[in-house]
Amino acid sequence: MHRRSLAPVALGAALALAATACSCATSGQARSGAAGGKTLTVWYMDGDLSSQAQNAIDTAFEKATGAKVRVQIQEWDDINTKISTALAQDNPPDVLEIGNTDVPLFAATGALSDITAHRAQLAGGQSWLPGLVGPATVDGKLYAAPLFAGNRAVIYNKKIWGAAGVSAAPASFAELTADLDKIKKANASPGFSAFYFPGQYWYGALQFVWAAGGQLAVQNGGSWSGALESAAAQQGLAAWKSFQNTYSTAASRDADTKSPDQAALFADGKAAAILDTSVNTVLKDAASHGDNALKDQIGTFPLPGAAPGTTQPVFLGGSDLAIAAKSPNQDLALAYLKAATSVSVQTGAIVGTDGWTPVSTQLIDQTSGSLSATSQAFAAAAKRSVATPATPGWATIESDKSINAFFADIATGRKSVAQAAKDFDAHLDQALNAAQ
Amino acid sequence: MPRSERGVSGEGAAGVLDPASPAQDRGPAGQGPAGPEGKRAGRRAARRRRGGRGRDRALPYVLLAPAALILALVLGYPLVRLVLISMQDYGLRALFTGTTRWNGAANYRAVLADGQFGAVLLRTLVFCAALAAGTLVIGLLVAQLMGRLGRRMRTAVTLCLICAWAMPNVAATLVWQWLFQPTYGVVNWLITSTRLAGDYAQHDWLAGPHSAFFVLWLLVVWQSVPFVALTLHAGLSQIPRSYYEAAALAGAGPWTGFRLVTVPLLRPILLLVTILSVIWDFNVFNQIWILTQGGPNGATSTLGIWSFARAFSSQSFGQGAAIAVVSVALLLVLTASYVRRLVRTGEQL
Amino acid sequence: MKRHKVALNAAAALFCVLWAFPVYWMVNTAFKPYGRILSPTPAFLPIPLSLGNFADAIHKPLFGTYLRNSLIVTASVVLLSLAVAFFAATALTRFRFLGRRGFLIGVLTVQMVPQPALLIPLFLTLRSAHLLNTLIGLTLTYVAFVLPFTIWTLRGFLHGVPVEIEEAAMVDGAGRMTVIRLILLPLVAPGVIATSVFAFITAWNDYVYAYVMMKDQDKYTLPVWLVSFSTSTGTDYGGLIAASSLFALPVIVFFMIIQGRLVEGMTSGAVKE
Question: B222–C22: do the CB atoms touch at under 8 Å?
Fold first, then answer.
């Protein structure tokens, strides 16, 4: 592992030397690269990586190349428009952190650099999580390197569970439903959910579809077609509908996680369990705002699959790092990507400092021991992930809320499972194949 | 450009509120409302003024130049570009690479033939009408109220109006989300407390199209009434009390007084405020986008939302542009009578 | 008569309560401690009082920079748009010239274009003019958005100033520009101030143009600060609502200062013989 990671660094340095053709005899210290005068502009998203993690990557990069890093933090609101216009200028940022499901939008339209040739070096022999690298691979070419992953697991209130007679986290789906039944019986008040699962929460609902073997869409030749009408997908959808309707309040069938706020409901004891990410407000608030009572009551486990010991495949959120096609600093940018995907940065900064899930299954195994008790579940769940369709049209599906409506229609019963799947498949066919 | 001299001048018309007759063409040195002779003399004087020294002739253009320049470069040129984009197959690839492909009226055909178009159009028109009507009626009532209050109460009302007007869209929409959300919303709690409608705690206002539109209507009206109310109040305070007293002496009741005194004198301002309301309410965007994103299921999707969604959700800038152009054309049709009056008389509107 | 007054005052009081309730709710929530922001039984008074949310709001990185940029851009937009609109409105009301009506119709038409639709065309235009990522480019954008309404409203005020006064001055030998500067401007000053409100709000509140047209973080304006409370880890509701309260404050203060002039400005120049 170590010998291999030196090679790309040396290569990068050599390239930088050749590129700038500057004699560095004047500088007192021996620098590994002649890129001492250059600055790389990197765009990060607000709230994803802490400044310490960013600094760790920057330091690794600066040590390797001698160039400086200029970090700009961007906000999520209207970010795709912002990235689109930024990449359309002649002096775009060199490296951008892009949400993993948004990468195809820019990759397929010519805004990002093709880094397929460097994939082996960047991966360093690891198996990148499909949820991160899948959307970054368009037509077989790689356009971005994974940065970190965030995924969902079940967060439950140990006190309420204990009061209902459940002491251990379930290991299979059947156990889970049995436990939830007990909790439901012990807490019959209206407005209480044994498992609060908003009907619009497609990130979670997709897990049921994938667990049953279904797919969102499949690619045949060059075109995509919606696959929710398949028997497997239908089974998964039906299973989700029954789960949602049984354990979550009637009012939640059409709701999303914000209104009412899912974390607030959990903190108020109105939900005995929720499905959420590792950095959601419940866990954060318990730590930072001194909600001590809740802190010790929180437990986590990955949503179990049908067979004991398995987990449902999860939707991977997270980000990839991409290089702007119009950037004049291609080699430096590549070096930055290498720094970010390196084992030391992943284990030290991504997992160690920030508690995100690292980018490969090997890294997950490597770091699971160092994680806190509540964080282990997320890492375990991340090992089984499914990628969203690697086509620009996927961004449309996420932003026009059609997928939210699809699941809400099923949960509320507005449409039958078969009808909803038929309609949504038609929409997927149209949107995923829309020309750019 | 045909210049109609039909008794309306741009010079020295009296007051924001013009009494029933169009402005008098004042003769030199203030002769007041003049007969035909005075009018001719006035026109001669005006022509003398117009045809005056060369520097004076260029002056209006000099004065207008900065505005014309800024508007042409920053609004006019992008508007032309918008129309051009609406006739191109313009997506992200075109944005990044700069190469575009013309497709003539294909975007327009796609938009007009789209199954959603009729529903979106109807929704936009109905919502715009509901918003404009609500804003104007409430605004007029508030303006009337303000006219009859003492100074302190009037200042209080003005302060409340200003707070509503000043609140940023984002904040106002967030507060509306909170007020109307299930479980934690104040509105639901208030309704449940009155015990008139049972347990409303879980009611999701944004789940159904009608209740979602109702919430949006409340939000937009809440923020639009202040401008209308303050403007109409200013207009109303210009009407001399003596007119009303005269009407009362002649035996007119309050409604007749309103009809015969207020409405005619308020007409120019009322018209201005109505046109502005129609334009702004037709193009309402921020509140709808933040609150519902055009949902549930596209039920609150107006032309503006649809255009934005096509452009920035589907990355189909050409179609988004086509929808925007269609909506501007529609708005022109809606305000056509006002524009026609403007062209004909040229002033006072 | 007294009963009538009482009824009017009661109606006014009810109106005030209804209309100010959302603003009151915003400020009320901002002063609540973080964990109490959302509760099934609403608390109408922020007891216990907490300034934590405001501290969170102000300590956001680059808050000072965003504030400075917002102030610069807003002040520039207000001043520039008023000056330009005043001259334009003067030209439109005090002169007759070729193209006047066309200009008026053009001004009315551009008001009808929905702002979000101009995002990409404006981006392309500013890119060609090398005005992207500059506060000047942003200022010009806002001025252009605000000009149509401002010109239209100032026209109305200018109509209210009788031309006799100018004519008297010109008879005394004053040139046209002097008349405009020394006579017309002071008379419509209240109206000018009143119209500045619209320019203020437009420049102060806009997010999407400020975000998309600027590239560097140190050129962002305050609305970017407002959305920074919603990140991938969730929304800091306390910070957001405190920030919104602070954000709305300058506008309200500005309003209150000019509101005396607002009505005066709109009624100035009424000539009734």
Answer: yes
Sorting pLDDT into bands at 50, 70 and 90, what band is C154? confident
Q: Quote the pLDDT of residue A9.
A: 44
Residues of A within 8 A of C234 (CB-CB) are: 263, 279-281, 284
From the DSSP assignment, how many helices (H) and strands (E) are in chain C? 12, 2
Residues C38 and C68 in one domain: no
The whole domain housing C127 covers 61-267
- Across the interface, whether the CB atoms of B182 and A106 are under 8 A apart is answered no
Give the number of B-C residue pairs with CB atoms closer than 8 Å. Answer: 320
Per-residue pLDDT tens over the stretch B326-336: 999 999 998 88
Q: How far apart are CA B310 and CA B322, in angstroms?
A: 10
Same domain, C165 and C217: yes
Band (A11; pLDDT cuts 50, 70, 90): very low
Q: Which residue has 């490296």 as its token pair?
A: A95
Report angle CA B54, B343, B25 to the nearest 5 degrees. 60
Full DSSP string of C129-193: TT-TT-HHHHHHHHHHHHHHHHHHHHHHHHHTS-HHHHHHHHHTT--HHHHIIIIIHHHHHHHHH
* Confidence tier at A2 by pLDDT (50, 70, 90): very low
Identify whether residues C67 and C190 lie together within a single domain. yes
**Is C112 within 8 Å of chain A by CB?**
no
Residues C40 and C85 in one domain: no
Selected for mutation to probe chain A from B173, B188, B308, B315 (highest A CB count within 10 Å) is B315
Q: Which positions 291-320 of A are in contact with C (Cβ < 8 Å)?
A: 291, 317
> What is the C-alpha to C-alpha distance for residues A103 and A105, in angstroms, rounded to an integer?
5
Per the structure, the complete domain to which residue B195 belongs is given by 110-345
In a domain, B142, yes or no: yes
Q: Which chains touch A (3 or more CB pairs under 8 A)?
A: B, C
Query: Which of B92, B177, B308 has the most A C-beta neighbours within 10 Å, making it the best mutation to test the interface with A?
Result: B92
**Average model confidence (pLDDT) across chain B:** 80
Q: For residue range B239-248, list pLDDT tens digits in order.
A: 778 888 888 8
Burial C150-163 (b: 16+ CB within 10 A, else e): bbbbbbbbbbbbbb
Residues A105, B315: C-beta atoms closer than 8 Å: yes
Model confidence pLDDT, tens digit, residues A157-172: 999 999 999 989 999 9
Lowest mean pLDDT among B115-129, C98-112, C155-169, C194-208: C155-169
- Selecting from A72, A78, A258 the residue whose C-beta is nearest the C-beta of C211 gives A78
Interface test with B, best of C141, C170, C266 (most B CBs within 10 A): C266
Please compute, for residue C272, the number of CA atoms within 13 A of its CA located in the half-sphere on the CB side: 15
> Which 53-72 residues of chain C touch chain B by CB within 8 A?
none
Q: Do C40 and B304 touch (CB under 8 A)?
A: no
pTM of the entire predicted model: 0.85
- ipTM summary value: 0.86
- Between chains, do C124 and B153 touch, taking CB under 8 Å as contact? no
Give the pLDDT band (50/70/90) at residue B319.
Answer: very high
Chain B, 63-92: which have a CB under 8 Å from a chain A CB? 89, 91-92
Q: Which residue of C has its CA nearest to A75?
A: C228
Residue A369 is predicted with a pLDDT of 86
> CA-CA distance, B30 to C166, in Å (whole number)?
11
CATH at C90: 1.10.3720.10
Q: Identify the pLDDT of residue C100.
A: 85
The residue with greater pLDDT, A13 or B264, is B264
CA distances to A42, A84, A99, A132, C18 from A109, rounded to whole Å, are: 21, 10, 16, 19, 51
Cβ–Cβ gap C113/B172 under 8 Å: no
